[in-house]
């Protein structure tokens, strides 16, 4: 029978412990403390790289923390978390301004959802995977484990700093992540002289609110497109013909009558291979909004039309690995109790038969904490 995590081991518990210490002993910023500890461990691990790490430190925008004793206490609390990517991701995501992200409908993507999407879009070594709303860089980090090159942008400065930290930890250039608006075609997402260059796009864009839709063709069929619809067009815009897309979207885009014209617009531009419904608990405790993952392939020609024999697989995930309070649930073996591995075993053969990539084998994952600071 599934059981809940042991108190004190979750990202939320660790974060509360750090914040309690910070509030009780200093006026330091909890984000800066955690960031400084993670960066210090990374710098220690990478010292053999010589001058490169000095430049990396500048790009990471390391803050100055005056209280060294406090840093040491936080380091002790985080020691285990810094060897667990999912916990570290969750801690950083919680520390990135909560209100600003919630107002945009932008929420942390659970690690097992990231893993599932990246496995299905199957980035190959040397391919370029782009995320136009990368947040703290979870999709980018996972894609690098498969040997892919990565590029991401986000408007949130703290999220970008975390993504740069994880990029360097994974052996990538910090400049592969930029602070910019992924909806702006002149942003740093792709070179201005070569707009459609990505082999793969994997993203969980902001859902809420409106953005300027000037220059977006979807605005011709949706009167007031929401941000997620604009990001869908942006993703297709930066993909090469035949490029692969995995994107999290609100459920109404898959079934709502108001978006029927948007779906026709999509079918003209991409082959829709799969729709995977996610449980309501997936993004708890932040939101219970229903979502799905769309897997699609950009058509190779603007004149290409949907073929009568094209098929789409519809799958519903029923176990999110969380309870109704958003706390993780583990099975008897200690693994997170979700069913996306089962979904993947059914979906992957269908996608590969449709020439939607080949599922790659991940390289050995990089760790932040193989050496002490």
Summarize the structure.
The protein has 373 residues and is α/β, with parallel strands linked by helices. The protein has helices spanning 11-25, 30-45, 51-59, 68-78, 85-95, 98-103, 111-121, 138-144, 157-169, 227-238, 252-255, 260-269, 340-353, and strands at 3-4, 128-131, 149-154, 177-179, 198-203, 239-250, 270-278, 291-298, 313-316, 329-330.
Question: Would you write up a description of this structure?
Answer:
The protein is α/β, with parallel strands linked by helices. The chain folds into two domains: 6-94, no CATH class; 99-353, Vaccinia Virus protein VP39 (Rossmann fold, 3-Layer(aba) Sandwich), CATH 3.40.50. The chain is 37% helix and 15% strand. The chain contains 13 helices and ten strands. An eight-stranded mixed beta sheet has the order 4-3-2-5-6-8-7-9. Strands 1-10 form a two-stranded antiparallel sheet. β3 (149-154), α9 and β4 (177-179) form a beta-alpha-beta unit. The model is unreliable at 1-8, 48-56 and 365-373 (pLDDT under 50).
What low-confidence regions span 5 or more consecutive residues with pLDDT below 50? 1-8, 48-56, 365-373
- Give Rg in angstroms: 21 Å
CATH fold label of the largest domain: Rossmann fold
Q: Specify the CATH class of the largest domain.
A: Alpha Beta
List keywords for this structure.
single chain, 373 residues, alpha/beta, Rossmann fold, 2 domains, 8-stranded mixed β-sheet, two-stranded antiparallel sheet, 37% helix, disordered N terminus, disordered C terminus
């Amino acid at each position: 029978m599934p059981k809940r995590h042991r108190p004190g081991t979750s990202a939320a518990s660790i974060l509360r412990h750090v914040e309690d210490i910070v509030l009780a002993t200093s006026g330091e910023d909890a984000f800066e403390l955690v960031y400084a500890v993670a960066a210090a461990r990374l710098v220690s691990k990478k010292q053999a790289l010589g001058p490169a790490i000095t430049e990396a430190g500048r790009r990471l925008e390391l803050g100055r923390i005056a209280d060294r004793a406090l840093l040491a206490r936080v380091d002790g609390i985080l020691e285990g978390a810094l060897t667990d990517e999912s916990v570290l991701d969750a801690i950083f995501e919680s520390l990135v301004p909560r209100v600003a992200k919630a107002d945009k409908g932008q929420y942390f993507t659970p690690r097992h959802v990231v893993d599932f999407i990246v496995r299905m879009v199957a980035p190959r070594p040397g391919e370029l995977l782009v995320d136009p709303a990368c947040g703290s860089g979870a999709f980018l980090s996972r894609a690098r484990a498969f040997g892919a090159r990565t590029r991401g942008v986000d408007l949130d400065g703290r999220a970008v700093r975390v993504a740069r930290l994880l990029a360097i930890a994974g052996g990538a250039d910090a400049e592969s992540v930029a602070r910019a608006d992924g909806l702006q075609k002149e942003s740093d997402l792709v070179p201005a002289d070569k707009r459609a260059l990505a082999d793969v796009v994997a993203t969980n864009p902001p859902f809420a609110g409106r953005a300027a839709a000037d220059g977006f063709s979807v605005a011709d069929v949706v009167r007031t497109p929401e941000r997620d619809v604009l990001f869908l067009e942006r993703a297709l815009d930066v993909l090469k013909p035949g490029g692969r897309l995995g994107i999290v979207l609100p459920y109404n885009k898959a079934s709502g009558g108001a978006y029927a014209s948007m779906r026709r617009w999509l079918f003209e531009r991409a082959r829709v291979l799969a729709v995977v419904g996610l449980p309501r608990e997936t993004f708890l405790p932040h939101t219970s909004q229903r979502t799905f993952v769309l897997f699609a392939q950009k058509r190779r020609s603007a004149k290409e039309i949907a073929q009568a024999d094209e098929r789409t697989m519809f799958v519903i995930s029923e176990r999110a690995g969380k309870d109704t309070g958003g706390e993780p649930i583990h099975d008897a073996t200690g693994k997170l109790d979700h069913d996306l591995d089962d979904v993947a075993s059914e979906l992957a053969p269908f996608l590969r038969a449709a020439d939607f990539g080949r599922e790659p084998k991940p390289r050995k994952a990089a760790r932040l904490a193989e050496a002490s600071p």
